[in-house]
Target: Amine oxidase
Amino acid sequence: MANKGESLSKKTTDGFLCHLNELATNGLPTLTYVQSQKLVYTEQYDVIIVGAGFAGLIAARELSLRQRKVLLIEAKDRIGGRTFTAEYDDGKKFEIGGTWIHWSQPHVWTEITRYGLSIIESKGVAAEHISVLLDNGTKLKQITLADNWITLGKAMEKYSDIDNVQARMVMPLPHAPFTARENVEKYDGLSMQDRFDQVRNALNMTDEIQAMLLALLSMNMQGDIAEGGFIDHLRWWALGDYDMIRMFDKLGRYKIKEGTSTLAQAILNDCQNVKLLLSTSVASVDRTKQDSVIIRLQSGDLILARTVLVTVPLNVLKNIEFLPALNLKKQEIAVKGQCQGGTKFWAKLDKPIGHWFAMAPYPNPITMAYTDDQDGSVIVGFGPEGLLDIKNIETVEKELNKFLPTVKVQYVLGHDWRTDPNIMSTWSWYKPGQMSSYLQILQTCEPPVFFASGDIANGWRGFIDGALESGLKSAREIQQYLDKHFTST
Model:
């Protein structure tokens, strides 16, 4: 029997739902499951966009509004990329991928304003107390947020203060991350663990504050901080106004009330003269022919375009063949890949617990969790490197019981982005040395092939805002290229 609020949604094959004493079932209802269109393969397009995440969607809108003929090709059966809102259980909204936004994120806030959307707070992040796991997850301690959050902020300041001015000499303009390139290169080789080892003794922390600091650092890159680049932490730090409390508010406190899928659908609805082809994978991009690009699909069908915009996640870029081959540095980073990230799940409890927040350092299977709704009956949780089997409700409940000994879980839902063959990562986090070596190379177009992704943005890389930034930039570059070489169709 259908739940209320699901009538307008259809199931994507992405995601899973698991009830107690039942096996997980694949697929979740979402508004971003939309109708694919039939193509006439003899047509030629001004632009073929590979990937219908936010970078691809915003580029499609901008180019189509400039009278360009656009084809969107998406491997999934929905739009939105690493972001979609599942609707279940009397219309409850669960953000399976990207979730939180902030008014200081310029590109996404512009779209929120444009489409008349609103925001809502994840209540648990302002809980009065924090549950902290110590001693390798064996000791639970309850501490007050008001006293310890400020102390944690001071520890984070010391951790981030690589240049004695809170990293302002490294990241003075975070939306232009190479403004101080020499300093970026100086510190880009450091891992987050390297930096922690440098300042560990100077931090003079209690066990609780150290556990919270390590939990937050691991949470941000969703894994072992020895694998994450410290320079990416400094980018987030600068975007957060060099202040932990403001940074955290921007990262995980406010989300789109109507759902991220509503925003994705609104952008698609604004597109003009755009065709959408779903459940279709691109095998190769051939730019050897003058004045056109040949896209070969996995089905073997060929499509012609004047330009191509590739918006796939960095970790799956290597799965597309480019003829001729891409720049050697692009090939190199495509093979190496960025950090894969960890896990995210939503758990519905049998009864509400109010506002609640928890932290535990790596390698605890849950590094951060908090109640997301008004009464505290839904928990969103995060873990590193796939250490938690989020499809196993008993395992999820067992790990939550470390923080909440008597809590019972009714159902769990989520999606394994790390093993999704079309994604292979959660949000973007570079390994040591990768930002200064590869970011600008990844951003560089190789006309008539262009690139955009939340993984290669300058500012809020790995966020919806970063995807929009990258897509807008590439749309401008493509429009300039087409204006120079072709007339509008």
Q: What stands out?
A: Confidence is low (pLDDT under 50) at residues 1-7. The chain has two domains: 34-116+258-335+422-485, 123-252+342-414.
